[in-house]
Amino acid sequence: xxxxxxxxxxxxxxxxxxxxxxxxxxxxxxxxxxxxxxxxxxxxxxxxxxxxxxxxxxxxxxxxxxxxxxxxxxxxxxxxxxxxx
Length: 85
Description:
Layout lengths: L3 E7 L4 E7 L5 H11 L9 E5 L2 E2 L16 E7 L7
Parallel strand pairs: 1-5
Antiparallel strand pairs: 1-2, 3-4, 3-5
């Protein structure tokens, strides 16, 4: 299979990463890569992934199964709200 480009915004880092992945990659794998590339130190379980405004509850599903298209955008954000300082 050919790879597809996707964009992942890691909200608490306020940074976007561009990845080129096989469509069979799982959402969990995408989240792990994005967190590593933005140097987040918290475990992946403390983050959720959204696509088109909805949380992707089953992170074991592939990009294809979730309907992620080339140049699609995902958001990785903390499960709990961060206090404003």
